[in-house]
Amino acid sequence: MLNQVKLVKKASLSLAYTKTADKNNLLALIAKNLAKNKQKIIKANLIDQAKAKHLLNSGELTKPLLERLILNDEKIAQLSNYCEAVANLADPAAKVLSKTMLDDGLVLTKITEPFGVIASIFESRPEVVVQVASLALKSGNGVILKGGSEAKHTNQCLSQIIKESLANYNLADALVLIETRGQVSEILAMEEHIDLIIPRGSNQFVKYIQDNTRIPVMGHSGGVCHVYVAANANLAEALNIVIDSKTDYPSACNAVETLLLDEKIAKDFLAKFLLSPKIRNIKLFADRSASEMITAKGVVVKIIENDWEKEYNDLAISIKLVKGIDEAITHINKHGSKHTDSILTENSKEALKFLNQVDSASVVHNASTRFADGFVFGLGAEVGISTGKYHARGPVGLEGLVTTKWRLVGKGHIKGDYGAAPKKSFKHQNLLT
Amino acid sequence: MLNQVKLVKKASLSLAYTKTADKNNLLALIAKNLAKNKQKIIKANLIDQAKAKHLLNSGELTKPLLERLILNDEKIAQLSNYCEAVANLADPAAKVLSKTMLDDGLVLTKITEPFGVIASIFESRPEVVVQVASLALKSGNGVILKGGSEAKHTNQCLSQIIKESLANYNLADALVLIETRGQVSEILAMEEHIDLIIPRGSNQFVKYIQDNTRIPVMGHSGGVCHVYVAANANLAEALNIVIDSKTDYPSACNAVETLLLDEKIAKDFLAKFLLSPKIRNIKLFADRSASEMITAKGVVVKIIENDWEKEYNDLAISIKLVKGIDEAITHINKHGSKHTDSILTENSKEALKFLNQVDSASVVHNASTRFADGFVFGLGAEVGISTGKYHARGPVGLEGLVTTKWRLVGKGHIKGDYGAAPKKSFKHQNLLT
Question: Which domains does chain A have, with CATH numbers?
Fold first, then answer.
C-alpha cells in the first residue's frame, strides 16, 4: 500500500498547481461520468444491498446502516449536482495572501497551497467517496479513501469512475481507494506521506482515529451542545429555539443536549415547555431541583446526579438549573465539547460575555444551535466541523483544505549583507493593493 | 499544579477580550518594571551563574549553556525594548474576518480569538520568559512557562516582575512559572486545559515534546535545509549564496546543510567553491562522484554513503550531485525537514517548478536560505518556525497565536423555518466590503 500512497503524493504535486479551469473541467467530467454510468453504479450498489440484507437478517447490521448504503437514481443525480456545485466554488489554492518587497529585487509572497494528501476514513455512506473526492480535488489535494466494507462494490465503482475522469488529465494516481480494514492502521502511521485525515462516522470511530495517529485530524468526536436560557430571556422565543435546537434533527451533532435554565425563570419556562405538544416524545433528564418542578407538573423525568456530558443524538435532553451566567459559562466550558452553544437573553452585556467567554467553535445569541453548519454559514460545502482550535475551527469548507507557503525570490541576495549600519536594512514594502 | 493551570485558564478568559490599549499599556509597564528592577534581575542571575560555573567545573554543564544563561545590563535593556516593540505590533485578536447576514436579523461573524492557554517549555536562555510572555499576552493568551533549572532564580525574578505588572490589571493569574522537571509530563497531559505548546531548544528536546503530547505543538524539530545549484545557475552568484547560507550563522536552523549540484555544473562550481578562502574552515562530506572532484583539487572530504539527513548546525556541509531538477526535488522532499530550501537558476520555468513542488514551509529562488526568519519576513516578532502544515507554517508571528470563532446573533431564529420552498432560504449577504 505504501507504493500506492507514494503515487498519490507524487500526483498531488502535479495537481497542486493545476489551473482552476482544469480542476473545474475535471469536476464537470466526473459529474457527467457519474450520470453516464448510473446503471453500473446501481448494479454495484444492489450487490452491496443484497449482502447487507443478509447481514440485517442475521443481526450483524442495523437498519439505519442499510438505509445509508442505498444509492438510487435521485441520489446519483444529487452527486452529479454536488460535483458541479463544487466546481462553481472559488478555488482556495494559489491565493496570494501577502506580497512584500523585503529589499530591491527580493520579493516575499505568502501563498495558499493544498495540504498534499488527504485521507478520508468513513463508514457506510458511499456518497462520501464523491463528496470528499470533489472537495479534495478542487482544493488540489490527492486523496486516499477508506470506506466501510458493507459498501465495497459501490465504493469501487464510484472510485473507478473518478479515476477514469482523472486519467483524462494524467492524474489517475491522485485518488486511491483502500479496501481492507487492516490498512487503516497502516494509514494512521504514514505521517511522512499523508498530510491530513478527515474521519466521518460515530464519535467512538473519530475518537479512535484521533487517539491513534500523529497526522493532523480534522473533525469532532463530540457534539454536547448547550442552550442557556438566561434570566432576561424572551420566554416565548426561548421555547421556540429550545424546541428547534432539540427536535429539528435530533441526531445531528449541532442538536442541543443540555438545557441550562437560570433559576429565576426556570419555573416559568418549564411551565410553557412542559405544555408544548412538541416535547411529548422527548425524554427528560434533570438535576434534583428541575426534576421537582417537572414532577410537580405530572411529567416523567429521570434524575441526573453527575453525568452532564451525555450526547443523546436522540429525542432526549438534560436540564439543569444554574444561578446565573457565570455558572452557565463554567458549566459549558467544563462539560461541553467545544462545538456550539447558545445564550437566550435580552441583556446584550450578558450576551457579549457569553459570546466572549464560552470556549466553543460556534457561539450563538438568540438563535438555534442547529444553524452551525457549513452550508448555512455560507461556505458552499462542508468537509466537517472541527472542534480543535489549531487550523480550522467550526464548520470547515474548502479553505480548511489549504495551508500556506512562503516563496522568496531574489537576485543573488545574501543575508550577510543585512544588519546594523553600515550594512543594509530591510524595506518591508507591501506590494499588494 | 492543576489548580494553577486552571487559574491561568480562567484569567485567559478575561485577558482574551481585554482592549488593545490596555494590553499595550501592560506591555509598557512590564518594560518599565524590567528596567526598574535591573539590579534585582542581575543579582538573581549571578546566583544562577555561580551555580552554573560549579557545574561547568565538574563537567555537568557546557560553556555555551553557561553563556546563554547570562543576563547583563545590555540584555535587560533589550528585553524592555522588546516589550515595547511588541506593544507596537498590530493586535492579532478580535479581528473580524467575515461578517455575513444569513437572513434578516441573523448575522454571522468570524472573529479571531486567542488560543487560550499557551505553554512554553524551554532550555537555558532566561530571555525566553519575557519574549514568550510578551507575545502571548499581546495576543490575549494566558501563559505557562517551564524553563531550565540552571536559570531558576533568573526565571523566577523575571516572572515575578511580569506577574506584578499583570496584577495592576487584575490579571496576575494569567502567567505561571513551573519549576520542577517532573511537571513537564504533567503539562503534556493537560490537553483539556492547555491549547498550544511552544517548545524551544534542541531538536531532540522538541521531538520529545511532539512525541509525548496530544496538545498541538508549534515548532520544528529539524532544519535540514538545501541549496540546489541548477544547470543554468549564475555560478558567481551561486558561490556567494551557498557560502552565506552555510557561514552567516551556521548553528541557525535555516543554515544550509546539503548542497545539491547539477552534474552539468558540478565541476565548475566546485572549482570556484574550493578556491574560496571562506570555505577553509568548512568540513566537507560528499557522495562518491563529488568526492572525486574534490579530492582531485587536493581538498579533504569524507564520503557519504546514505546519510543525507544530517543537520550539522556547524561549519560542515553535505554535497551531492544530481541529474537535474526532478532528482533535486525528489531528494529534498525525501530527506529534507520541510523547513527552507533554495534553487539557484536563471531558468524561470525550472524555478517555478521548484517553488511549486518542493514541499517545504519556505521555498527560495536565487537567494540565501538564511532569510527565512520572522523579523526578515516582516512579522515584527517570531514565536518560532513551524514545519507543520496544520495552522501556521514557516516563520510564525503574533497571527499564529490566534484561532477563529464563529458568532451567530439572531432574534429568535430557528432552523426549522429554513429549507425548500415554501420554507425560507438563506440570503448570505456579505456585510464587509
Answer: 2-217+397-405 (3.40.605.10), 225-371 (3.40.309.10)
